[in-house]
Write a structure and sequence with these properties.
CATH architecture of the largest domain: 2-Layer Sandwich
GO molecular function: diguanylate cyclase activity
Distance between the termini: 41 Å
Number of strands: 16
Enzyme class: transferase
CATH class of the largest domain: Alpha Beta
Radius of gyration: 56 Å
Keywords: Membrane, Transmembrane, Transmembrane helix
Largest sheet: 6 strands, antiparallel
Shape: rod-shaped
Number of domains: 2
Number of helices: 15
Strand content: 15-25%
Strand order of the largest sheet: 3-2-1-6-5-4
Catalytic activity: 2 GTP = 3',3'-c-di-GMP + 2 diphosphate
Pfam family, one: CHASE4
Bound molecules: guanosine-5'-triphosphate
CATH superfamily of the largest domain: LuxQ periplasmic domain, N-terminal subdomain
Length: 470
């Protein structure tokens, strides 16, 4: 409501009352809020980067665990596959006949040998008796002779016993070392095809494949385990860097499996970081622009409002209210400091005629021009205001009667001699009457105004265009 009043009094200012209303309900933000908001952006950015890092690092752990699980699963499947092949042969009466009862080298080579090696990667086939005497031995598809003592070199005995003790089909698997090389081994008892039980002779069949680079490459490709590497362990110790180790039945590590997992933090961090940082920078810049722009608008608007409240829109000098405020302040100060003051009250002569003959707007121009001329002829610290329609007042600071008369006379002369520009073409002549009153050192502003007003009327009564003293 206050704003609306000011707006209607101070015509000419372009802001609407809705704008003023908005300003009142949205106070100008303090500039210190801007760095605060930007710091919040910074903190959020750091938190998001931290969160992304944390997510990626935990993903890294998951990826590592996941890969390890897949490697173990792959080797378990390999074992089961080997057991499946072994089972087919251990149940096959003809195989028992040709490998144990009447060993037939040609049959063995045709039905096991190269065929098993090429199709299933089986490098080693042994058929042996319950007292671990080898009957038929095929290595790399070829029949070779191998002694019982060589067979006993490994901890094969445990595996043999486990096969005997296990349930049907009496097949077990494990990792064993033969001739200094780790192998994936499956041992099964020969079973009777018709009776579906252990044969009375307690004979065994062993299938194994060598864990070499070639095998690991196959596992790598088949089970989609990129980067899987293999190394044998000579001293039986698990290597520090090994991610999965293959142990024999005594818990001795025979081989180490390693791989290079792609680290999500390495792979995605930079890719994620860049857009996140960019988005934050853009957001921070936009916020900065909005806040700074808004702040500047509010400042501008505030200064406009102050102008509207204190200045006369036509002449740009103090309005009545502001004149009273400043003049009262000056009287208090003069009272304290015991200095002199004088008041000039001025009124343009026959101003109505200008309005009537040339129009209100021409009258406005004369008023504005009059104010400018007066302003030029008083001192900077004098208080000048429009106190009525065509009535003006100047409070002369530290001025005695002589000084006040001198200034009043100067104004009267300047106005009288001035050719006011006019739209009609020919310049206008105006005169002004001035009433002077010197402050008595005690009186209030109203009283001083009344006395100078009376002096002004005396000037008017005495023929205008003159300076009268109260
Ligand atoms: N153009 C214009 N005229 C105004 C404004 N304020 C007051 N007036 C006019 O000023 C005139 C004052 O007339 P009067 O009070 O009769 O005084 P005067 O014609 O100046 O005659 P004296 O003062 O007796 O010399 C009136 O016509 C008012 O309308 C204003 O802001 N603009």
């Amino acid at each position: 409501m206050v704003m609306k009043t000011i707006m209607s009094e101070q015509r000419g200012f372009t802001a609407s009352s809705a704008d003023a209303e908005y300003l009142l309900t949205h106070p100008v933000p303090s500039r210190s809020v801007i760095p605060l908001i930007l710091s919040l952006f910074g903190v959020s950015l750091v938190s998001i980067i931290g969160l992304v890092m944390l997510t990626l690092v935990s993903m890294e752990g998951l990826t590592e665990d996941n890969f390890k699980q897949r490697v173990k699963t792959a080797f378990n499947i390999e074992m089961i596959r080997q057991q499946g092949i072994l089972q087919e042969y251990s149940y096959w009466d003809e195989a028992h006949q040709k490998l144990i009862v009447e060993p037939d080298e040609d049959w063995a080579k045709d039905n096991l040998g190269a065929y098993l090696q090429e199709t299933y990667g089986i490098d080693l086939v042994w058929a042996f008796t319950s007292d671990m005497q080898p009957v038929m031995t095929l290595t790399d598809g070829e029949q070779v002779m191998i002694s019982a003592s060589e067979l006993q070199l490994s901890d094969l005995q445990t595996l043999v016993q486990a096969a005997v003790d296990s349930d049907m089909p009496h097949i077990v698997s494990g990792y064993r070392e033969f001739f200094g090389t780790p192998y994936l081994v499956s041992i099964g008892m020969f079973l009777d095809e018709d009776e579906m039980q252990k044969r009375s002779d307690g004979t065994f069949l062993l299938f194994a494949y060598r864990l070499d680079d070639h095998k690991i490459q196959r596992v790598r490709d088949e089970y989609l385990l990129p980067g899987l590497r293999f190394s044998t362990v000579n001293n039986g110790e698990q290597s520090d860097s090994a991610k999965v180790s293959l142990y024999n039945s005594q818990g001795v590590s025979l081989a180490n499996l390693n791989w290079d997992t792609v680290s999500p933090s390495d792979k995605y961090f930079v890719r994620l970081l860049l857009p996140v940082v960019l988005i934050f920078i853009v957001m921070a810049l936009l916020t900065w622009r909005l806040l700074v722009g808004e702040y500047a608008n509010r400042q501008l608007y505030s200064s406009h409002l102050i102008d509207m409240a204190t200045k006369d829109f036509l002449t740009n000098i103090s309005n009545r209210r502001e004149f009273y405020l400043r003049a009262n302040h000056e009287i208090s100060r003069s009272h304290r400091e015991q200095t002199s003051l004088a008041l000039l009250m001025m009124d343009l002569d026959h101003f109505k005629k200008i309005n009537d003959s040339l129009g209100h707007s021409a009258g406005d121009d004369v008023l504005a021009e009059f104010a400018r001329l007066v302003q030029e002829n008083i001192r900077e610290f004098d208080i000048f205001g429009r106190v009525g329609g065509e009535e003006f007042a100047v409070l002369l600071v530290a001025a005695d009667l002589a000084k006040a008369e001198e200034i009043g006379e100067r104004i009267r002369r300047v106005i009288g001699e001035y050719a006011f520009p006019s739209l009609s073409g020919s310049p206008l002549q105006c005169t002004v009457s001035v009433g002077v009153a010197v402050w008595d050192g005690e009186e209030a502003l109203d009283r001083l105004m009344v006395r100078s007003d009376e002096a002004l009327y005396t000037a008017k009564d005495n023929g205008r265009n003159r300076v009268s003293v109260a």
